[in-house]
Amino acid sequence: MFFKQIKSKGDNFSYVIADENNEAVIVDPSFNADTIITLIAECDGTVKYVINTHSHWDHIAGNDEIINKFNSKLVAHQLSKVNKTISVVNGDILKIRNITIRIIHTPGHTPDSICLLIDDMLLTGDTLFVGECGRTDLPGGSSSEMYNSLFNKLMKLDDEIKVYPGHDYGPSPHSTIGREKKTNYTLKKRTLKQFIEFMKEP
Asked: Is the pTM value of this prediction over 0.90?
């Protein structure tokens, strides 16, 4: 399996996952579409799916450019308002040959937020960053849903799972679930009520 984290413009990460025949999945094209298209073209590849972890503009900005170039299908959560080809919900599975992508619905930052589990790699969008978590004060955000997504879903994954976020906000471009449990101040043990109050802090 080919896996690449891309950041060519701004602080948004995009991801390219491809099988041995260079059939690829692009996650959150963002402002990195030119770099992604060049990479796919260099290996004479194709793009089966474009997947959005959520529908904020800085993550979907490159959708049309990738889809029009490669005739790809757009995948997003069923609550997303993007013009998706395929709607997914929690627990759904996408495949490209021998690569399995499991959908984990993680609302909190947005109602349509999803994370993608691929082998031992977790693409977290704006739900979990290295050293931070996504904000919940934007339209559709919910601190109570974020609490559930973080503590009842992501933090129950194996400590060895690698974390690949949607933005380059932390001290490193990726981490692990175990490291975030130990070092991420937003994941400190709190009750739901305490977490909601914590998320109100500036």
From this structure: yes
